[in-house]
Amino acid sequence: MTETTGVPAPDRDQRSAAAAELAEREGMNITSRSFGRQTFDRFRRHKLAMISAVVLVLLTLSFIIGPWLSPYTFSEQDFTALNQGPSLEHPFGTDTIGRDIMVRTFLGGRFSLRIALFVSLLTTLIGTVIGAVAGYFGGTLDTVLNQVVNLFLIVPTLVVLLVVGVRFGTSPNGIAVLLALLLWPSIARVVRGLFMQYKEQEFVLAARAAGARAPRIMFRHILPNTFGPIVVNATLLIGVAIILESTLSFLSVGVQDPIPTLGNLIEKAKGSLDTKPSAVLIPGGFIVAIALCINFLGDGLRDALDPTARKA
Amino acid sequence: MFAYVVRRILSTIPLLIVGTFLVFTLTAISGDPLAELAIQDVDQAAYDRIIELYNLDQPIPLRYVNWVFNAVQGDMGPSPSQGGQQTFDLVMQRAKNTARLAIPAFIIVALSAITLGVYSAVKQYSKLDYFVTGFSFLGISLPTFVFGLFLQVFWGIWFFDWFGVRPFFVLGMRTVASDGWLDMIRSHVLPITTLWLVITASESRFQRAAMLEVINSDYIRTARAKGLPRRTVILKHGLRNALIPLVTIWAIDFALLLGGSVVTESIFAWPGLGRLLLDGIFRQDLNLTMGVVVFISLLVVIFNLIADLLYGVLDPRIRYD
Fold first, then answer.
1. What is the ipTM of this complex?
2. Chain B residues within 8 A of A281 when measuring between CB atoms
């Protein structure tokens, strides 16, 4: 863009110098804060979210470092220590074929978290694109989206996941893609609503008047405004994915042995629930801890990124 | 009104067709129904008879059309994994067992979600509100199967170690006929608690949000200003309106409860629809899987319709045209 007014606009330094002078004269203290800074300041006030963020970082680090420090590997079998309870040598005990549960739990956490992150990214990508297109153009595409949402209501997600997961969801990436293919409608609906709302506003009209085409308006002008809700939903999706993936694993659909996930560890251990409940409760505790932290984090992010949002 | 109902039912038919076709195709391509026979020593004639009986040599779309044609006439076909019993009879019989959990669970969920939601909205930012919020966060973050297994460990092992009694049965269903009323109740408590926690956690959140919105509206202030007691205002003016947005959520939750909880039923060895569905899926029993799926889908459709009609009763401004 070129200046058309003829009068040169004051550059940034001149302007801020003027502002500082004004502030001094009027006795006001102006410190500008960037969007990121404002968001972080708001986020910091949400104590639970801050604690959750710290706990999540610690959990992730232990999932990454833990297996590396352990003297055992995830598939190494010790036939002299089958199906044991917690001991000094095996703090979480061993499973029915003599594998150390502690190293398997940390690795399981790593796989579960990796799957959940992948699901969240993929779902957000699919949902945002479809929601953006449906919300911006409306018409047939929008009708199709609505019908798909209705379809997913009539045929419960878990049923489809069970049916397809038996064959196609046995690898970490396979189950992640399956979950993403079923979870996108919720995020698409959010994005669609935001796009419908923003496309009527003046800045979109201005962009259009300046000659911007639809893709540019959608992704350069409208999309940045929807950043907050999308990030919040993507965060909460991690929690949903962790729970869904572990539920599928528990029903022995999903990632198969020997690759551990928090869910299939519980599935393997539920047979000896009455003699060795720790093998069920420890991975279960990790799932709850991760999901709880993610939910608090999402709540804090909602308050920080999207201060006008109604809390539901 | 009548025209509305008819139109709604007609508009769900295409969705039902697409949905059942998808599940039918996915189930059919997800596994080989003959795998179980192949590892047994079955002679070729029996093998061919099975293929003939279930039309396994035909293309999937044709089999689907065939299935729909029979299904709309009430013939859901035999279920090979359940010894060839009629799918329709199996589903009806299991639906009864599932309803024995679903109906009490739903009543308790509705009552507790309303109470918790209304209290925490009325006393916003009080200790109780934080407690309810914490409870619902925990409930949302707790996978059903982890909670169910925890209940089994707690009541079946820890409580037994401390007190030497098991107040609740941790596995299986007992009927009035076999053991008397008390035993029947004892076998129902834990699965119902499991269903209750997860649904109540999210419903009480919605109820709180709906109630907060109502409480801060003008007509509530008017009602208070004209001197009505607080209690009357909250219950008669507030709650009545705060229930409307919840009706849809209730309808779907109740439909899904009646459709059977796969996880809860497998943890507590409950012979309901959820386990029947799992059986159908794991044993490549297409007729059985489809039978349960159709049952769940119909429940969702019917309860959604009921919810929409209830909307009109609760809010007379809504008209059906």
1. 0.86
2. 149-150, 153
